[in-house]
Every structure is written in structure tokens, then in C-alpha cells.
């Protein structure tokens, strides 16, 4: 019996030679690889569908667009509620907003980079139409100064554009500088704001002091790429702010005050005053 056991052990050792172990390893590697990659695949798939659910925006709703946004995440702001810093020299040198009320209730949940959208606290279709009408009303009040069109940033949705300052615009302090926009936004188109059809939020470009006030009073937050540069190219103005969707029609005038503040920053124009 002892000899049998020794022979049996020798057979097992002879069978488990180095080449045999390598063969077994080859059989195990695919299973180990699948076990390791499956969670990553599920994460990417869910993240990709979450990207698509945000709707159309400045980035194509394709997997290539998703990969681009995933790369941009590496450069995103850590804190969207941190206001932009003040430059030593800027014009206008002061903000526009004075008596911005505090927004009631908690902030909405926001996600995404391109696009950036609200996930909750969305408004009704009738309220969305009222916001669009407010855009058109403001443009109609300044036909030689404001134009409507598709957003340069988003490629979708209505936007307001401030015409270049070919003629000096007069305000209380005297003539403003002649030339292009004081603070260019998207390719110097003069875009001051745009409205998102999917959630009725908007993006505006503001003076740093106005951006800080909008954030502090709970009306918005900075875009994740506001003021960020990639390979020496600035993607968005530092005061690029997402303004939350109004929940009541009574909040629309406050949103339009913020839009007028954007006009002040982009062109130094006080849109509270009718320009002849």
C-alpha cells in the first residue's frame, strides 16, 4: 500500500509539470480578465447612458462625444460654487446686480459638462414658453442691439446676442469704448445667454462680482469648465454660470435681471434703459 501511494504521488507530480501549469493558466486568464473588466464595462455603459440622458448640447450625443467629455472631466473645477477671481484690471470694473433676492428652497441636482443640465426641479412647458417669450421681449426692446439665434456654445436652443459696439453706447458715466465686445464670449459672437430646451435652465456670462452674487443667493453655479484652459486654450469664460430653472412665473423677472447683468458684462450696456 505504501508503494502504491508513492507511485500515485509521483504520477501527480509528473502530471503537474511546468508546461502543464502554464496551460492551466492560459485557461484561467480569460476568466480573470472578464472578472476584472466586467465592472469597468458596466460603469462605462451606465455613464454613457447618463450622458445621453442629458440631451443635446455642444458635444455630439455619440460615444466619441462621450469620450471627449470624459477627457474634459480631468480639467473640471473642484468646486462649482467657488466664484471666479477678480482681475487687477477689468471693464466694467463693477458688477451690475444690486438687489438680487435669495432663491427659496434647496438647489437642484446638476450633472454633466457638455451638456450641463438640471436633473430635477424642472418647470412646466407653459413656464418654459414664458421664459422664451421673455427672451423675445427683451430683444424686441433693443432691436438694434440684441439679436436672437441658435447658441454658439450649445449649437441648440435660443440665445441672445449683443451686437458689436460699432457706435459708442451712452450710459450714466459717458461713452463706452468703441470696438468689439468688451468681454468676448463664444468666438466674439456677443452671446450673453442661452436657454436649454430640455430643462429650461440657462447659461450666462457674468462679471465676477455678479457671478459671486448669483451663486451666493442660490440662483446658479459655475460651469465645471468655467475659466479652465486646456493646452493653452481657454474653453469658457471664467464667469460662465448656469442659472437654475424657474419654478414659478414670478421668478422669471429675477432671471431676466441676471440676463441683463450678462449684457452689462459682455458689452457694458445697461439693458434697463431704453436706448434711442
Short key terms for the protein model shown above:
single chain; globular; two-stranded antiparallel ribbon; 276 residues
How would you summarize this macromolecular structure in one to three sentences?
The protein is of the alpha+beta class and 276 residues long. The chain contains 6 helices and 12 strands. The protein starts with a helix and ends in a 9-residue tail after the last helix.
Q: How much helical structure, as a percent, in the residues?
A: 25-40%
C-alpha end-to-end distance: 114 Å
Output the structural class: alpha+beta
Shape: globular
**Low-pLDDT segments, ≥5 res:** 1-7, 165-180
Largest sheet: 6 strands, antiparallel
Q: In sequence order, what are the helices and strands, one letter per element?
A: HHHEEHEEEEEEHEEEEH
**Strand neighbour order, sheet with most strands:** 3-4-7-8-12-9
Radius of gyration: 28 Å
Provide an overview of this structure:
- By secondary structure, this protein is of the alpha+beta class.
- The chain has six helices and twelve strands.
- A six-stranded antiparallel sheet has the order 3-4-7-8-12-9, covered by helices on one side.
- It is globular, with a radius of gyration of 28 Å.
Amino acid at each position: 500500500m505504501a508503494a502504491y501511494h508513492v507511485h500515485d504521488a509521483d504520477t501527480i507530480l509528473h502530471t503537474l509539470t511546468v508546461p502543464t501549469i502554464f496551460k492551466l493558466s492560459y485557461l484561467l486568464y480569460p476568466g480573470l480578465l472578464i472578472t476584472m473588466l466586467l465592472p469597468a464595462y458596466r460603469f462605462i455603459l451606465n455613464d454613457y447612458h447618463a450622458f445621453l440622458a442629458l440631451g443635446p448640447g455642444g458635444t455630439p450625443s455619440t460615444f466619441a462625444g462621450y469620450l471627449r467629455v470624459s477627457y474634459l472631466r480631468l480639467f473640471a473645477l473642484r468646486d462649482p460654487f467657488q466664484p471666479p477671481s477678480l482681475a487687477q484690471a477689468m471693464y466694467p470694473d463693477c458688477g451690475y446686480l444690486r438687489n438680487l433676492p435669495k432663491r427659496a428652497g434647496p438647489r437642484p441636482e446638476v450633472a454633466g459638462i457638455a451638456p450641463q443640465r438640471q436633473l430635477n426641479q424642472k418647470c412646466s412647458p407653459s413656464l418654459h414658453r414664458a421664459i422664451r417669450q421673455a427672451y423675445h421681449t427683451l430683444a424686441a426692446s433693443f432691436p438694434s442691439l440684441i439679436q436672437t439665434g441658435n447658441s454658439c456654445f450649445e449649437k441648440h436652443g435660443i440665445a441672445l446676442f449683443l451686437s458689436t459696439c460699432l457706435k459708442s453706447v451712452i450710459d450714466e458715466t459717458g461713452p463706452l469704448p468703441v470696438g468689439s465686445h468688451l468681454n468676448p464670449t463664444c468666438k466674439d459672437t456677443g452671446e450673453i445667454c442661452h436657454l436649454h430646451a430640455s430643462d429650461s435652465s440657462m447659461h450666462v456670462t457674468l462679471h465676477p462680482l455678479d457671478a459671486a452674487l448669483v451663486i451666493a443667493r442660490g440662483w446658479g453655479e459655475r460651469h465645471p469648465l468655467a475659466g479652465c484652459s486646456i493646452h493653452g486654450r481657454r474653453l469658457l469664460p471664467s464667469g460662465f454660470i448656469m442659472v437654475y430653472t424657474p419654478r414659478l412665473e414670478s421668478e422669471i423677472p429675477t432671471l431676466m435681471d441676471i440676463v441683463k447683468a450678462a449684457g452689462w458684462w459682455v458689452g457694458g450696456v445697461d439693458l434697463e434703459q431704453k436706448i434711442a
